Amino acid sequence: MKKLFLIIPVLCLLVYSCSSSIELDELSSKNLKISDFEYVGELHNQGLANSYSEIKGLVNSGHKISKENKQKLLQVQKEITMNFVSEQDFEQDIIVVTKQQIEIGADDFVMFNQSVSRTSQSNIIPDSLLLGISDEAQDMIFRIFEIMEDEDLDTASLNSRIHSIEQEAISSLEIDEQFVVLSTSSVAKHTLVYWNENHEDWLNLLDGDANGRTADSDINWKAAGKADVGGAALAGLSLAVSGTGAAMAATGPAGWAGIGLVVVGRGLQASAVRMLWDLW
Fold first, then answer.
1. Minimal CA–CA distance to 188: which of 141, 151, 152?
2. Which of 162, 212, 229, 250 falls between 20 and 30 A from 151, CA-CA?
3. What are the residue ranges spanned by the domains of the chain?
4. What's this model's pTM, rounded to 2 decimal places?
């Protein structure tokens, strides 16, 4: 694996005793388990349920957003995501970092749908981030994306395939890359369940409105899940490559939980906007 020596000039707010640098080998004494990251997907789905409730409230109160005004749509979901994150029981420093990632990722969905040149097969993750992880870790991320894009719509099959990648990550990757893959995969598993069960409710948000959108509209529920996974992967990679993730992890269990909140926040923004983009 490419060693990442993480120089951290501005991240002292994240650690209780800040040194000038952290070598990831110092974290290798912690053995991660797949179950350590289940809370990431669970919190992510709670956030999606919250977004649906908030948006439904706006619709029921007569709030209208022009389909042509895409930036307004992005702003609505960003505010909902920011509020959800603020309500979580985390240290304020972690909330701040999470909000920064949401701000950075506010246009993730727009980027996903633009024809942006990438050397990677995913066409989602910038090469500047991919270069910070090993080829093996890159391959696992790409394989998760492939699962989100194929014709398999059986959630048991999808989760089994994702679990296989998770087991591989635990057995072969070092700790910094494990948290990238496992946090992304946790979002993937849970978002597939969520959108399979709830995509019609989202379609019904504007059933019969002036745009003519109805619940039987042909919108692929896996597409919203792919946006989730894209946002989650971007957040995890950003944390790993910048050194923020290592600094947070060094603080112990609360830090690891904080990594999950960051991943959740950015994934939520991308996913909910993906559905709203089609609805409005």
1. 141
2. 212
3. 33-279
4. 0.78
